Amino acid sequence: MVRLPLTPAEVERGQRLGALLRRARGERSMLEIALDAGVSPETLRKIESGRVATPAFPTIAAIADVLGLSLDEVWAEINQPERGAEPAGAGHDARKRLAS
Fold first, then answer.
1. Which range, of 8-12, 19-23, 77-81, 95-99, averages the lowest pLDDT?
2. Which parts of the chain fold into alpha helices (H)?
3. Residue 96: is its pLDDT beyond 70?
4. Distance between first and last Cα of the chain
5. CB 54 within 8 Å of CB 10
6. In this structure, how many other beta carbons lie within 10 angstroms of the beta carbon of residue 9?
7. Average pLDDT, the chain
């Protein structure tokens, strides 16, 4: 299976996710949060830096739980439409069409 490149909208959502997690973490150490969430510190670092723009749902759920964020809050934050950006999900549909 070949993974298609991320769309600009997906990359942007990943960056917003990383920024949200950094803000929610505040002064707490990355190591503390990662261990409490059951993920590696390297994984958390990559998500916070935007290098992993589409992390697995259980990973985000675990990190959000440790940070006291609801998944609704996370979803609302990362899907804020930017001016000129494509609607949420449009990149996913386009990738499906390309894969067909």
1. 95-99
2. 8-25, 30-37, 41-49, 57-67, 71-78, 90-99
3. no
4. 13
5. yes
6. 21
7. 84
